[in-house]
Amino acid sequence: MIDAHVHLENGPLSKEYVFEFIDTALEKGIEHLQLLDHTHRFYEFREMYDDICQADPRQKIWFEKKQKNSIQDLLKLKDEIEQEQLPLKVSWGLEVCYEKEREPFLRSILPGLPLDFFVGSVHSIDHFLYDIGAFSEELVWEKMDTSIIYKKYYQELAQCIASDLFDQIGHPDVIKLYQLDPGYDLHPTYEKLAQLAKEHHVCMEDNTGAYYRYNHPEIGLCPAFRKILKQYHVPIVWASDAHYPAHVAMAYDELKGAQFL
């Protein structure tokens, strides 16, 4: 069993902290742990966030607090852990905050990084972050029609899949996190994304994060989306989106039951 999306974000890049995740993974029956962090943690990706910082001063403050390390710190930790005798498989990656206009930069930097996988995720709409409690409601959800937000999100996600930069797509339908009605039928969108994922050989996450972090009633993917992905034979990986060791494989028992919806 895999947990394909586990963050080191809230702790140091140290062996001791990694083993806290490994210990929990073993307790939960995880055999493959994919460790990563957001690109916004690493100084080398700073220019990717210029538009987000310029869009609103609160976003700049948020971003500056996230900047903690050089990517070399992660690579050094990866090398150190790989020297250990581990009781399970550990892979190392990055969660990339995708924006279409940043593709040239990403093409210049990602191929040179000796990591095992790259996750592409959409975290902003027109350079405004949509899931930050302190300000996203004002910057995004009160300013735009919900249907426009959904359409912009899924358009960007389609471009993310088609970019061929990523092995895995993070929390593909997380824009649903506030349980707002998109105002239109999402089934054609799910069909389009499934077709793209199949054509571009990416796997899609069945990510429990919105369920236990935002109290969304759906466990992982929307059942209709999951069903369509399976119909297209798109690989699906289970992911907790853990930001703390205790959250590894979070809600996996519930996710197991959701597979039959």
TrEMBL record:
<dbReference type="GO" id="GO:0005737">
    <property type="term" value="C:cytoplasm"/>
</dbReference>
<dbReference type="Pfam" id="PF02811">
    <property type="entry name" value="PHP"/>
</dbReference>
<dbReference type="InterPro" id="IPR010140">
    <property type="entry name" value="Histidinol_P_phosphatase_HisJ"/>
</dbReference>
<keyword id="KW-0028">Amino-acid biosynthesis</keyword>
<keyword id="KW-0368">Histidine biosynthesis</keyword>
<dbReference type="InterPro" id="IPR016195">
    <property type="entry name" value="Pol/histidinol_Pase-like"/>
</dbReference>
<protein>
    <recommendedName>
        <fullName>Histidinol-phosphatase</fullName>
        <ecNumber>3.1.3.15</ecNumber>
    </recommendedName>
</protein>
<comment type="pathway">
    <text>Amino-acid biosynthesis; L-histidine biosynthesis; L-histidine from 5-phospho-alpha-D-ribose 1-diphosphate: step 8/9.</text>
</comment>
<keyword id="KW-0378">Hydrolase</keyword>
<dbReference type="GO" id="GO:0004401">
    <property type="term" value="F:histidinol-phosphatase activity"/>
</dbReference>
<feature type="domain" description="PHP">
    <location>
        <begin position="3"/>
        <end position="207"/>
    </location>
</feature>
<dbReference type="InterPro" id="IPR004013">
    <property type="entry name" value="PHP_dom"/>
</dbReference>
<dbReference type="GO" id="GO:0000105">
    <property type="term" value="P:L-histidine biosynthetic process"/>
</dbReference>
<comment type="similarity">
    <text>Belongs to the PHP hydrolase family. HisK subfamily.</text>
</comment>
